[in-house]
């Protein structure tokens, strides 16, 4: 298992980055928040998980070991694959996710696109005893601050498109959030827009 990679960031896409390790460029899929913390041409370290399928090897990257562990834990639940697990971490910060699982907060969990009420119930049933919630975890905690995210609107719209949303709904969701929270940083903006898009499905 490849548990981490460290090297120069060669490329940053909408849903992945390419990190050079020992002369080899590794494509690492990650959440928009994690990708926003990387800088092209700069060295970086990502905690990683390698997902092996018969037809492919896919590397997923995370800002820290905690996110990687939650990524693996989510996939122990029937019906939750790596893409849904990654989308969950894109919408819910680790503290928020753990608190929702422990409290049985289905409303919070169903903010994740692709997870309906039955899926949320299954997650709570199978994982609530496997996680420990931090005390007083706020419902809108951002897992990482984004530096130099300007213009925020365009960056977040691109990130949403990279997650599979079409451009127009993504733009409308971001604009709606900005109308109420004009000073929101890019990480908060992304999570709020994902919440709106999840509700609209």
TrEMBL record:
SMART domains: HhH1 (SM00278). It is found in: Cytoplasm. NCBIfam families: ruvA. Belongs to the RuvA family. The keyword DNA repair applies. The gene is ruvA. GO terms for molecular function: DNA helicase activity; hydrolase activity. SUPFAM superfamilies: DNA helicase RuvA subunit, C-terminal domain, Nucleic acid-binding proteins, RuvA domain 2-like. Residues 151-201 are annotated as: Domain III. The keyword DNA repair applies. It comes from Pseudonocardia yunnanensis. Its main location: cytoplasm. Coiled coil: none annotated. It comes from the Bacteria. HAMAP family: DNA_HJ_migration_RuvA. This is Holliday junction branch migration complex subunit RuvA. Keywords: Cytoplasm, DNA damage, DNA recombination, DNA repair, DNA-binding, Hydrolase. Has three domains with a flexible linker between the domains II and III and assumes an 'L' shape. Domain III is highly mobile and contacts RuvB. Residues 64-141 are annotated as: Domain II.
